[in-house]
Design a protein that fits this description.
heteropentamer; A mainly alpha (221); B alpha/beta (265); C mainly alpha (221); D alpha/beta (250); A: 221 residues; mainly alpha; MetI-like fold; 9 helices; B: 265 residues; alpha/beta; six-stranded mixed β-sheet; four-stranded antiparallel β-sheet; 10 strands; 24% strand; globular; binds adenosine-5'-triphosphate; binds magnesium ion
């Protein structure tokens, strides 16, 4: 009943979507993570206005679907303000924004988990606020943020399929087209799922290993 | 205002509040160069807060704190002071050691010590490590230079924390219950290190419950309660004939744990 | 706003409300289902019994590494093929999303349980409390507090994720938006309204979790 | 169940289930959930002929045919009959033929005034991948660039043209173009012209059902003949396929 | 095997290993009904592990532990013992109090105390609360019944933890450094509570650094080092003339913190 043989010949067509899927994922993850750090710091900082701005950013991108950001960026921006970004920029940008919101919360969790005493000790030594953050606090958050960051990356990889709504030929778009052509959506989507599995599984293993290793360094037995 | 012109540390009428709770209530205290002041008092009386204000980890509402005559912290409810701007003295004139050590867990002992000299003073790695090693030797930890803090006993961690604070060459050292998180048989080694510092003439403010240390090392013992300084006197006087009833009551309670034997120590 | 026209779409508001109700029902069912299964999975993972923990592990990783969209399609079209039992589009989507989110809840809950200090288990043990009482009265109530922020994020993520049900035609928010766009040929405007609807649904939840977190944090310190 | 015809199942169950794909004006779902269109009318008649209820089930193009195999529904309406599709499902006789037009933005600067002008690599066609529209585009402009959507509606595709993301979309005449013109007025242009289909590969529309179901084939043949002979089909085409009518139901 | 027939607590040749590290090395110890044994020794010597084995929080590799003659824990490397199955005595024959209190933070003080009686003993809510209140009165905390642990001082928390353990009516109480996380002036109140228990004839094993308490309350002081019992003697003997050099060294180190004054306490 599940006739994988009927679609297996189309497998290479799906594989052609892998570089684009991986590209969108990596670019939006890296950009989102870099942006997330100042947002997280701004959220923690008790500076009036700045924290609220950061919170607004986080909540906006947490509560509205990235699909909308993509459609807006791709279809509305050219019409409304005359800016015509290319498809990759739109998708990577939209996903980077929602990633930055998620990663900011992860960073915030990590930073607030570092005991106050660490800030105090480094302040008394004369380190500037940025030096405290960079040399003392951030290295200690690593073990807390690595695993959830990996999870974000895993979700992002799957979310990159949103690029399909603007016809970018990544894995999922290719899958739907194949499904329409062959009328075998279950078989095609099974292949699609398999590719996603192969892409994400190493990340999941990595995340588990990182979690184990980084907590080891802090145990004294 | 009390005359604190020539004192190294001068705390003048400091008021510190958290919201509506007054934690330091018009506290004035001065310490001369080379003096050791031991601060005692019940839990919550404001001892830690006083040290934290000196280290500029807190802001204050009223009064001011000067080091060597220069105001380093002023009450934010007071009118803005003319003259020396806050921070005229480098923040690292004051070194502080905490009850919970607060070593940086991701760095080795030597890296803990060299971080601030390198990043703040801009020392070269070689110079900083040389300085670090000489300090480690002085606290008897040269063989632990490359260990991470978790691999050290509590006493060793605390000595490393002292070395870290000293690496910035502070003129004043603050100690906040530095032995109370330690196993009793490890307390001695840390107290010995502190004794050594006092002998070398370091100006020190020490919050501690170690009455033996207070008796032997302190020039003055300061008793705090409810955010105020109740009494200040040399140890020989405060332990034998405290002026205030509150001081006597506190010291008695400290000894109560010794049981009904009435033994003094 | 330049070329955007919202007026025409306003007349479809009642339809959007209907769609929102379907979205709410979908979310509610899959969240409850996901939380229950997730808890069971977390306990199975935690049990230390291979017979329980390995299947739980396989379940979690399977659902985390394959796209939820594919899971929905599998369930909708695959289930009748394999077991001959049929689920309609609504229930297929609800069950598939519930099964999917269970994997994420499981990991969150497990982290929450692991995060409870070992000494709490020991204190309960010394009092002679049996395992199930220790979990019910001592461990889980505390774990619940720990996992609150992560749970909030996941719940919001799921509500937005119910849009995936569009793929099998479940008449939830995004699908209704699609239909409106088809009648009006105004996809950008429609999608913007849909995004506002998602915001209206999720923001109170974000606020509620923030509030709950703050309240519990107060009772702790 | 191999030997049994779907027709028997329909009668047993007392319900005819039809895939609710979206293809205006043959079949479409109003935002309030109601299904309308010519095929809906035809299916109503089919159901009453069989003496059963009609149930239009939510569906999507990519998965519509899979639903026949997994018995989600008995019939998929509004499908263009192609050889490739015939490998998977059987079709009824075609009951309607649809032509295609090309819709472009009014301000398009690529000089798309002749069919040859479309047949250049820099011209981008936005089409649903694997659809009849795609095959039309490939036939009239083999050198043009195809931008294939996995899941899309004609509304999404028009948006491509409006935003300048693609140069042309293939729409069937006249209904889709009528709606598009109503929505965007002079922002779009239709080639060769409104109510003037291209002279290529018209879509012969039929009903798809489970492959190899002889009983169903025979029955549908009889039903379509009856519909045509009685003049009902012509009346329905007249009712649904004119631009004016569509405007009226809006 | 030593003769431990009639002892309430009998620990026989117990060996406990973590991986290749031997933490308890052939430890035998027995305590009579109503006796108070105080266990002292350097950090890492196995004191906590011994109590944890008694509370059945750990398994052991060799030897056995009996309560009132019934084996409750046997080495898993030993041949399976015939006779009484482990757990013949209810687990709650033994109550334990920890250094870090380990109260359940989400429950009020009274709920902390009544949880186990209700769930394990099946007591009604009213009965359990009555019992709970009488215990709270005995530790002087009746006004804190509805407070959550975070609202209590360390000393109050520890007294609540003692009440919680007592609510299961154990025959033996284990105390593991129950005062070392407390502020010095709060230590007294907890020690007083423990003293009261001893006076009422409770059988107790106490790990502590409070030498005053040991001197006054212990029937026997047990000195452990490197996983073995080095010496066991009444306090009057062990403090004045310890038999073993290791014991003397340890006690001297404990007193070293008192400084160079050579003062004994
Ligand atoms: N961040 C804060 N917000 C509100 N109140 C605070 C804060 N920090 C300290 N306090 C309060 O200030 C008072 C003094 O605290 P402080 O830590 O200085 O006391 P202490 O004498 O060091 O006590 P201990 O011996 O327990 O260390 C206490 O009542 C405490 O509850
Ligand atoms: N889970 C464990 N795994 C491995 N080694 C352990 C474990 N728990 C304890 N140990 C080791 O067992 C030895 C005895 O520990 P124990 O806690 O019983 O000592 P203690 O006498 O109570 O010390 P302290 O005075 O510091 O509480 C120590 O060397 C410790 O490192
Ligand atoms: Mg303090
Ligand atoms: Mg211990």
């Amino acid at each position: 009943m599940l006739r994988l043989d009927a679609v297996i010949g189309d497998f290479p067509t799906l594989l052609l979507g892998v570089p684009l899927t991986v590209g969108i994922t990596l670019v939006s993850f890296i950009v989102g993570t870099v942006v997330a750090l100042p947002i997280a710091v701004a959220r923690i900082a008790q500076v009036p206005g700045v924290s609220q701005l950061a919170l607004g950013w986080i909540e906006f991108f947490r509560t509205t679907p990235p699909l909308m950001h993509i459609v807006w960026g791709y279809y509305a921006l050219p019409v409304v303000v005359g800016i015509k970004l290319d498809a990759f920029t739109v998708v990577a940008g939209a996903l980077a924004c929602s990633t930055s919101a998620q990663m900011a919360e992860i960073f915030r969790g990590g930073i607030t988990a570092v005991p106050r005493g660490q800030w105090d000790a480094s302040q008394v030594l004369g380190l500037s606020p940025l030096q405290r953050l960079w040399w003392v606090v951030l290295p200690q958050t690593l073990r807390l943020v690595l695993a959830p960051s990996c999870n974000t990356l895993v979700s992002l990889l799957k979310q990159s399929s949103l690029a399909a709504v603007i016809a970018m030929p990544e894995i999922m778009n290719r899958g739907w087209i194949l499904a329409s052509e062959t009328f075998r959506p279950i078989e095609v989507l099974t292949l699609v799922a398999f590719i996603y599995f192969v892409l994400t599984w190493p990340l999941v293993l990595l995340s588990a290993a990182l979690e184990r290793r980084s907590s080891l360094a802090f145990r004294n037995d | 205002m009390t005359n604190t012109q020539h004192k190294l540390v001068a705390i003048d009428h400091v008021v510190k509040r958290y919201g509506s709770v007054t934690v330091l209530d018009d506290v004035s205290l001065s310490v001369d160069t080379g003096q050791v002041a031991v601060i005692i008092g019940p839990s919550g009386s404001g001892k830690s807060t006083l040290l934290r204000c000196l280290a500029r980890l807190e802001n204050i509402q009223q009064g001011r704190i000067s080091i060597d005559g220069a105001v380093v912290l002023a009450g934010d409810e007071d009118a803005k002071q003319p003259g020396a701007p806050a921070g005229a003295h480098a923040a690292y004139d004051v070194g502080m050691v905490f009850q919970s050590f607060n070593l940086f867990p991701h760095l080795t002992v030597l890296e803990n010590i060299t971080l601030a000299p390198r990043r703040v003073r801009g020392m070269s790695r070689t110079d900083a490590e040389e300085l670090g090693m000489s300090l480690l030797r002085s606290v008897g930890l040269e063989d632990k230079r490359d260990s991470h803090p978790v691999r050290l006993s509590g006493g060793q961690q605390q000595r490393a924390a002292i070395a870290r604070a000293l690496a910035m060459r502070p003129r004043i050292m603050l100690f906040d219950e530095v032995t109370s998180a330690l196993d009793p048989e490890l307390v001695g080694e840390v107290l010995k290190t502190m004794r050594g510092l006092a002998d070398q003439g370091m100006t020190m403010l020490v919050v501690t419950h170690e009455m033996g240390f207070a008796r032997d090392v302190a020039d003055d013992v300061v008793f705090m309660d409810h955010g105020s300084i109740v009494e200040r006197a040399p140890p020989s006087i405060i332990f034998s004939e405290p002026r205030e009833a509150r001081t006597r009551l506190f010291l008695e309670r400290l000894l109560e744990r010794e049981g009904g034997t009435g033994r003094t120590r | 706003m330049g070329d955007l026209q919202f007026g025409q779409i306003a007349s479809y508001l009642p339809d959007l409300v209907d769609g929102a109700i379907v979205t709410i029902r979908l979310s509610a069912i899959s969240i409850v289902m996901g939380a229950l299964i997730g808890l069971a999975l977390a306990l199975a993972r935690f049990s230390g019994l291979r017979l329980l923990s390995w299947p739980a592990y396989a379940y979690i990783e399977f659902f985390r590494t394959t796209p939820p969209l594919v899971q929905i399609v599998w369930l909708y079209y695959g289930l009748p093929l394999f077991i001959g039992h049929d689920l309609d589009a609504f229930w297929s989507a609800a069950v598939a999303l519930g099964l999917n989110i269970a994997a994420f809840f499981a990991e969150i809950f497990r982290a929450g349980i692991v995060g409870i200090d070992r000494t709490q288990w020991q204190a309960a043990r010394v009092l002679g409390l049996p395992m199930q009482d220790t979990l019910r009265f001592v461990i889980l109530p505390q774990a619940f507090q720990n996992v609150l922020p992560a749970t909030g994020t996941t719940v919001i993520y799921l509500i937005k994720g119910t849009a995936l049900a569009t793929a099998i035609g479940t008449p939830e928010l995004l699908r209704v938006g699609q239909l409106i766009a088809l009648e009006t040929f105004r996809p950008v405007e429609t999608l913007t309204l849909v995004a506002v609807a998602y915001f209206v649904l999720t923001y109170p939840i974000a606020l509620a979790f923030q509030g709950l977190e703050r309240r519990l944090a107060k009772s702790r310190v | 169940s191999q030997a049994q015809s779907v027709l028997d199942e329909i009668k047993q169950r007392g319900e005819l289930r039809v895939a609710g794909v979206l293809y205006r004006p043959l079949i479409s779902r109003r935002p309030n959930g109601e299904y309308v269109g010519m095929d809906v009318e035809v299916m109503k008649r089919l159901a009453s002929d069989l003496g059963v209820k009609l149930n239009v089930v939510n569906s999507e193009w990519a998965t519509a045919v899979a639903g026949i195999e997994s018995k989600k529904w008995d019939i998929v309406p509004a499908l263009c009959i192609t050889d490739k599709r015939k490998e998977v499902v059987d079709f009824s006789e075609s009951y309607i033929t649809i032509g295609a037009t090309l819709t472009i933005a009014a301000n398009n600067a690529k000089g798309l005034t002749s069919l040859q002008a479309f047949d250049r690599p820099e011209v981008v066609f936005a089409v649903p991948g694997g659809s009849w529209s795609e095959s039309v585009a490939k036939e009239v402009a083999p050198k043009a660039t195809i931008k294939a959507f996995g899941q899309s509606t004609s509304a999404d595709l028009i948006q491509e043209v409006i935003a300048g993301r693609a140069d042309a979309v293939v729409l069937d005449t006249p209904i889709q173009t009528t709606v598009a013109l109503a929505a965007f007025g002079d922002k779009i242009r239709v080639f060769p012209g409104h109510n003037q289909p291209l002279d290529v590969r018209a879509c012969k529309v039929g009903y798809a059902y489970m492959k190899g179901d002889q009983k169903m084939a025979t029955y549908l043949e009889g039903f379509t003949k009856k519909l045509r002979d009685s003049g009902q089909l012509a009346a329905l085409v007249k009712q649904f396929m004119t631009a004016d009518q569509i405007k009226a139901t809006d």
